Amino acid sequence: MSRQITVYVTLFTSILLFGCTSREAPAPVNSLDNHVKPTTRKVNITGSKYTVKKGDTLYSIAFSSQRDFRTLAKINNIPAPYTIFPGQRILITKQEQKHKKAKKYTNSSKKSTFSTQKNNKKLKKELDQPKQREYVQKQANKIISDKNGNSNSKVVWSWPAKGKVTRRFSNKENGFKGLQITNKEGASVLAAAHGTVVYAGNALRGYGNLIILKHNDDYLSAYAHNSTLLVKEKQEVKAGQKIAEMGSSDSSVTALRFEIRYRGQAVNPAKYLP
């Protein structure tokens, strides 16, 4: 009797072990983020060329390479609304034409020098030296003020999240290029200004689930490490609108990484926020 029991126990154990070892691997856990699919491909652009992958936008490429999106559009002859396609080669820099430009500049400078000399002779008769300097300075100041007026006055900034600022902007080459605002998982992430979503995804290395907003031709803002994205690309958002929930994607802490880019270059957000 005891021998039969031992046989049954052995048989049952064997079936159980066989079932465990033959089970299929568990299905991958899909992201719960809104419209965001997890990807193993992480973009980190450092070279002079880049091949477009699925999910890329010209803005995300410009952001990763720290270039102005208009510069990339110009050197690659990409018209608005800046549509790009997987497999397309994007030039990040246009080094091969530096010498040609230099030659053109040298040739044209001879002509411009000659015409400038003629104009200077006329100006000399009409204005004395002090008045010339005053006139030139006024013109320069006017150009500078016009440029500043067109770019800054249209963007009214507000804080993108509540919480404690645990990291600040650094001017060092490899320094932190934004503000880190720490709070709990799921805390609201808000649009810092009115704008349009030009990127919503997780392909940029070091940023996790990322949203990039375009505010005007000069300014972009970025919201990184979110747990959930609540907006889509090409969607218009209002200042203060909830666009994501705070998380720790591609980060060791639960916090929002907030950046502002001016013509492709990172600037200190603290100088813009109220």
What descriptors fit this protein?
274 residues; two-stranded antiparallel ribbon; Glucose Permease (Domain IIA); single chain; ten-stranded antiparallel β-sheet; alpha+beta; 5 helices; globular
Outline of this structure?
With 274 residues, the chain is of the alpha+beta class. The chain is built from 5 helices and 12 strands. Strands 3, 4, 5, 6, 7, 8, 9, 10, 11 and 12 form a 10-stranded antiparallel sheet that branches.
Q: What does this protein look like?
A:
The chain has 274 residues and is of the alpha+beta class. It has a domain at 164-271: Distorted Sandwich (Glucose Permease (Domain IIA)). It has 5 helices and 12 strands. The strands form 2 sheets. Strands 3, 4, 5, 6, 7, 8, 9, 10, 11 and 12 form a 10-stranded antiparallel beta sheet that branches. A two-stranded antiparallel sheet has the order 1-2. A hairpin with a 2-residue loop joins strand 11 (255-262) and strand 12. The longest helix is centred in the middle third of the chain and has 29 residues, at 98-126. Residues 15-35, 37-41 and 135-152 have low confidence and may be disordered.
